[in-house]
């Protein structure tokens, strides 16, 4: 049986980021995804990228734009 230091469940933006960070730090990582594609809710524009430009951001008076994010 193969051994891993870290198992990440879900290959959405957070799972991919966590898996990559762990691998770059030297961990042996297993990334599990139930779907046939990576991306998670980010593939559907659930809240926008990092919630930039979201309704919630606007309601809280935050003015952080996509240009600011990139």
From TrEMBL:
Protein's UniProt keywords contain Oxidoreductase: yes
Pfam families: FAD_binding_2
Keyword line: FAD, Flavoprotein, Oxidoreductase
SUPFAM superfamilies registered for this protein in UniProt: FAD/NAD(P)-binding domain
InterPro entries found in the cross-reference section: FAD-dep_OxRdtase_2_FAD-bd, FAD-oxidoreductase_2, FAD/NAD-bd_sf
Limits of the FAD-dependent oxidoreductase 2 FAD-binding domain: 5-67
Required co-factors: FAD
Any one GO molecular function term: oxidoreductase activity
Protein name: FAD-dependent oxidoreductase 2 FAD-binding domain-containing protein
Species: Lactobacillus amylolyticus DSM 11664
């Amino acid at each position: 049986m193969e051994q891993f230091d870290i198992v990440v469940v879900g290959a959405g933006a957070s799972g991919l980021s966590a898996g990559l960070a762990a691998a770059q730090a030297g961990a042996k990582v297993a990334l599990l995804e139930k779907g046939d594609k990576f991306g998670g809710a980010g593939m559907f524009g659930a809240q926008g990228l990092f919630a930039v430009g979201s309704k919630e951001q606007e309601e809280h008076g935050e003015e952080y734009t996509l240009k600011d994010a990139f």
